[in-house]
Design a protein that fits this description.
Elements lengths: L1 H21 L14 E8 L6 E6 L16 E6 L4 E6 L4 E3 L11 E8 L2 E8 L6 E9 L9 E8 L8 E8 L2 E2 L6 E4 L29 E2 L4 E9 L1 H14 L21 E15 L3
Parallel strand pairs: 1-15
Antiparallel strand pairs: 1-2, 2-5, 3-4, 3-6, 4-5, 6-7, 8-9, 9-13, 10-11, 10-12, 10-14, 14-15
C-alpha cells in the first residue's frame, strides 16, 4: 500500500512539473537592426502627379510611426532622356511639379540620393488593350462562399503572346473593396477567364462564368473597375505581401520576411503600370 501511495505521489509531481513547464514564459531580447530606407512609388499612364514616399524602418516591437525622410534628392526619368525632379511635399512625400503621364512601351527609372547613397529601380510601362465591356449578372442563391447578389465581370481582348500580369481595383460607390486582399491574375495559362470573348450573354450563370470579381453588389450601386497591367516582379511582390499578411501565427507558417522589392539597398517597390477603367451602375 505504501508503495502504491508513493507511486501516486510521484505521478502527481511529474504531472505538476510538466504543467508548470508548459506555463513557462520566455522573453526574447531581439537585437536592434540598423535603420533602412523604405521607398514606395506607383506611377501610371493616368494623368496625375507622380509621388514617392520615403521613410526609415523601425525595430520590430517599436510602436512609433516610421520616421519620414525630408532631405533626399529624388528623380524619375524615362529611356528617352526626360527627367523629372520631385520636390518634398511634407511627411516624406516627394511630388512632381504638375501632372505626369507614363508612355506605354517606355522604361522609367526612379533614383533616390540619400545620405551619400544612391537607390535605383527601373520598370517598363506595359501596354494593354482597352476593356470592351463591364457587365453584371444576378446570383439568386448562395453557392459556397458566393452570397446572393449581383456580380461584375469584364469582356476584353488581350495582347499575345502570354506573359502579362494584372491587378484589379474594384470600387463600390467610390469605396475601394479589399475584402479579399489584392485581386491578381496572369495570362500565363490557357483560358484566361477574365478575357473570355465567347460568353453567352443571354445565359450567364455563376457556373458558366469562370471568374467574376469576388464582390457582391445591390441595385443602385455604382461600380468602378480599374485594370492595371503590371510587371511580373510587382506581381510576385504582391503575392509575397499577401502571404505575409495571411500568416496565422502557427508553427507551420514560413518565417516572417520582408517582401522582395525592386530597389537595390532599400525596402519597398517602384511600380509602373498602364491602366484601363470602366464604370457602370447596377440596375434591375
Amino acid at each position: 500500500m505504501q508503495i502504491m501511495k508513493l507511486y501516486q505521489i510521484l505521478i502527481f509531481l511529474a504531472i505538476l512539473t510538466v504543467g508548470n513547464a508548459c506555463r513557462t514564459v520566455v522573453d526574447w531580447e531581439l537585437e536592434s537592426a540598423p535603420e533602412k530606407l523604405t521607398i514606395e512609388s506607383y506611377i501610371s499612364d493616368r494623368s496625375e502627379p507622380w509621388k514617392v514616399q520615403l521613410t526609415r524602418t523601425r525595430d520590430y516591437f517599436d510602436n512609433e510611426e516610421a520616421d519620414a525622410v525630408a532631405s533626399a534628392f529624388v528623380t524619375i526619368s524615362d529611356d528617352q532622356g526626360n527627367v523629372d525632379t520631385l520636390q518634398h511635399n511634407g511627411e516624406g512625400e516627394y511630388m512632381s511639379n504638375g501632372v505626369r503621364q507614363c508612355v506605354r512601351g517606355r522604361e522609367y527609372t526612379l533614383n533616390v540620393e540619400f545620405e551619400g547613397k544612391s537607390y535605383t529601380a527601373t520598370e517598363l510601362c506595359r501596354d494593354q488593350l482597352p476593356v470592351d465591356t463591364l457587365l453584371y449578372f444576378y446570383q439568386p442563391t448562395r453557392n459556397g462562399f458566393i452570397d446572393v447578389g449581383y456580380y461584375v465581370f469584364e469582356l476584353a481582348q488581350e495582347i499575345a503572346p502570354p506573359g502579362d500580369y494584372y491587378q484589379w481595383r474594384i470600387f463600390r460607390n467610390d469605396t475601394l473593396l479589399d475584402d479579399f486582399g489584392y485581386v491578381l491574375d496572369t495570362d500565363e495559362f490557357a483560358d484566361f477567364s477574365f478575357f473570355n470573348s465567347n460568353i453567352d450573354l443571354e445565359n450567364i450563370t455563376l457556373e458558366y462564368l469562370p471568374r467574376p470579381f469576388p464582390f457582391d453588389f445591390q441595385v443602385g450601386d455604382e461600380v468602378i473597375m480599374e485594370q492595371w497591367c503590371i510587371n511580373k516582379n510587382f506581381y510576385d511582390y504582391l503575392i509575397e505581401v499577401t502571404n505575409q499578411y495571411n500568416r496565422a501565427g502557427s508553427p507551420f507558417d514560413s518565417p516572417p520576411a520582408n517582401p522582395t522589392g525592386n530597389i537595390a539597398g532599400a525596402y519597398g517597390y517602384f511600380a509602373v503600370y498602364s491602366l484601363e477603367r470602366k464604370e457602370l451602375t447596377i440596375t434591375e
